[in-house]
Design goal:
five-stranded mixed sheet; alpha/beta; 294 residues; 12 helices; single chain
């Protein structure tokens, strides 16, 4: 492949990317494709070609992307195990007048991916952070899910501990708003079962997998159908989008829902509903239905 001339390429010139400022002493947070290499933006290509260095979650993965477009910018590792040390080095480089881009293996850095600590260190040092937006599995999945409600809670990956996972799922399920989870293939079956327990049977869920790739799948189902939707041999990263609850729960206030979620950690659903009903004045049957959704 003939390398792209990032100053004269017609598409880049037409986009205006090559005429933009590229301030020194700045960290550029650059989104990269989540599957389909064509989803990288013209601005991202230009920035990656012009900065002094690229801090990457995995230099091998990013190296493949850079070679595809003929970009020869030096790479350095910046992942969750060395982020503190990498941040100190990058801040020093920026203070000296450098420009550094931050990327992860796929998608937008610091969104359930490494990068947040580095970004915070740069900001705390009084230096500039420049976002270069692009692909994100969160927005990609949400845009195609047809979710209801006016708010969307992003919970990312669930905690590892069983108690913390259950507490968070019960709390999220007790709200009327939709929410989004990320999950790895080796844990998605267990998470699907936990969601059924937290949501009950009827709440709508959208399962998104292999987004932007050849075998992309978006499946809308009832919570009870989640284990089947996930499949016996899960593959690829999953985005699980839980739709807004039905109108039965819409007027139960947030404080009552938090009390109910807390009680459900220690008591059976029927007992938790009874205690919460006595404290809130909401009928026990409605609170029980909120917990079980069956």
């Amino acid at each position: 492949m003939t390398p792209i001339d990032f100053d004269t390429d017609p598409l880049l010139v037409a986009s205006g990317a090559a005429q933009q400022d590229l301030p020194a002493r700045s960290l550029y947070v650059v989104a990269t494709p989540i599957g389909n290499a064509a989803d990288i933006t013209l601005r991202a290509l230009w920035v990656l070609s012009k900065v002094d260095a690229i801090a990457a979650e995995d230099t091998r993965t990013t190296g493949v992307l850079l070679r595809r477009y003929g970009i020869r910018t030096p790479l350095r590792a910046a992942h969750e195990h060395n982020e503190r040390e990498a941040a100190a080095s990058i801040v020093e480089r920026l203070r000296a007048g450098g420009r550094v881009a931050l990327v992860t293996d796929a998608g937008t850095p610091a969104i359930s991916d490494p990068g947040a600590r580095l970004v915070r260190c740069v900001l705390d040092a009084g230096l500039r952070v420049v976002p270069v937006p692009g692909a994100s599995s969160l927005t990609t999945a949400a845009s195609a899910a047809g979710l209801g409600g006016s708010l969307l809670t992003f919970a990312g990956f669930l905690p590892a501990g069983a108690r913390e996972r259950r507490r968070l799922l019960v709390e999220l399920a007790a709200r009327n708003e939709p929410f989004v989870l990320f999950e790895a293939p080796h844990r998605v079956a267990a998470t699907a079962a936990e969601l059924v327990e937290a949501l009950g049977h009827e709440r709508r869920v959208v399962v998104a997998r292999e987004l932007t790739k050849k075998f992309e799948t978006l499946l809308s189902c009832r919570a009870a159908e989640l284990p089947e939707a996930v499949g016996a041999e899960p593959r690829g990263e999953y985005v699980l989008l839980v739709d807004a609850a039905d109108e039965v729960t819409a007027d139960i206030d947030a404080v009552t829902r938090r009390w109910l979620a807390a009680l459900a950690e220690a008591l059976p659903a029927s007992r938790a509903a009874a205690v919460a009903a006595k404290a809130s004045g909401v009928p026990r049957e409605r609170l029980y239905a909120l917990l079980t959704k069956q």
